[in-house]
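Let us practice reading a record.
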Amino acid sequence: PPLFQLIKEQSGTEWKEMYQVFNMGHRMEFYVNAATAEAIMKNEKTFNNWIKWGLINLAIVALYGMMMRFKIAYEFPFFQQKNLLHAHSHFAFSGWISHFLYCGLAMIVIEQLGNAVRKKYKMLIIANLVCSFGMLIFFTYQGYKALSITFSTLSIILAVGFTFVFVKDAKRFSTDNASKPWAIGGLLLNILSSAG
């Protein structure tokens, strides 16, 4: 896009550095096999809605990051820096990163097992969004207190539940599915990381 040409000209930055620092107009891209691409296209509306929520959540993460930096330099009434930090980190992990991972893994399962499993993954993804927004709101408002801790705990329980459901469904994947061990390993490490 012309914006990058303008940045290059105004900053005197070399093209090599431009490509290292900026995405240079690339969108979010998924590299998948033909069968997965076909499943995504069949489920395009659902997948697009899930991705839109992920992008909205990314914008919220960026907004909170900006608010935290602004608060360092200027007085920003009604918000505690520590609360913003906790809300930002919890929401970034649950509402943005975990959300995208769950969506991608759900699409793998739908591609492997068909639309019969769509409803349970949709419910898990919605539950994750509810927990994420609960943490965002209550960590911002009150910091570490009963409601924020409740949503955080529910988020951990949901991660365990998602892992259990995915591992159970993955047993029915085709034997040549290369993503299965990586996905299961990642989900198990996610649970392990919540232990402390």
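A brief commentary: The chain has eight helices and no strands.
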